[in-house]
Write a structure and sequence with these properties.
Rossmann fold, two-stranded antiparallel ribbon, 24% helix, 27% strand, globular
C-alpha cells in the first residue's frame, strides 16, 4: 500500500519523501544520478519523475546513462535518455567514473541485474533506486524501491 502525504498541491508518496530527505541531507555533497539504459523501463513516467525531482532539487546533478558502458554524461536538465534493447548491463564503468569524479553519493536507477567487478572498491554512498515491485538484494549500498 502506498503511503502518501499532500503538500503544496502535490501528492508525495513514501519513496519521494525518502528521496527528498536524502537530497536535502546531502545538499553540500557532490551527487550523480545514473540510469541503466540496457532495456526500456516498464514504468518510463516513473523514471522521468525521478529525473525531474533531481532536476528541481539539485540542478547541478550529472546524469550518467549507461548499459555495459557509459553512453552519456550530461547535466540532469538537458539530458535526452536513449534506451537500448540488449539487456546487457554492467555497473563497473559508472562506479569507477563516480570514484574518479570524487562523487560523494551516487543514485542508480536500475533493476539491479547488472554485474560489476567483485574487486571494485566503492568508498562513497550508493543508493539503488529500483523501479520494480520486486526488490532484489544489492551488492552494497542501500536499495530504495521507487515503484
Amino acid at each position: 500500500m502506498r503511503t502518501a502525504i499532500y503538500t503544496r498541491g502535490m501528492i508525495i508518496v513514501r519513496w519521494q519523501r525518502a528521496l527528498l530527505a536524502l537530497l536535502k541531507e546531502r545538499k553540500d555533497h557532490s551527487i550523480a544520478l545514473a540510469i541503466d539504459t540496457s532495456n526500456r523501463p516498464s514504468r518510463p513516467v516513473l523514471i522521468q519523475n525521478i529525473i525531474k525531482l533531481f532536476e528541481k532539487l539539485r540542478p547541478d546533478t550529472l546524469l550518467v546513462q549507461a548499459d555495459f558502458k557509459i553512453r552519456d554524461v550530461s547535466p540532469v536538465g538537458v539530458a535526452t535518455i536513449k534506451y537500448f534493447k540488449h539487456g546487457k548491463s554492467s555497473y563497473t564503468e559508472v562506479l569507477e567514473w563516480a570514484a574518479a569524479q570524487k562523487i560523494d553519493t551516487l543514485f542508480y536507477i536500475t533493476d539491479v541485474t547488472g554485474y560489476f567487478y567483485e574487486e571494485l572498491e566503492v568508498d562513497y554512498e550508493v543508493f539503488w533506486l529500483v523501479p520494480d515491485d520486486y526488490m532484489p538484494r544489492v551488492p552494497f549500498g542501500k536499495p530504495i524501491r521507487v515503484a
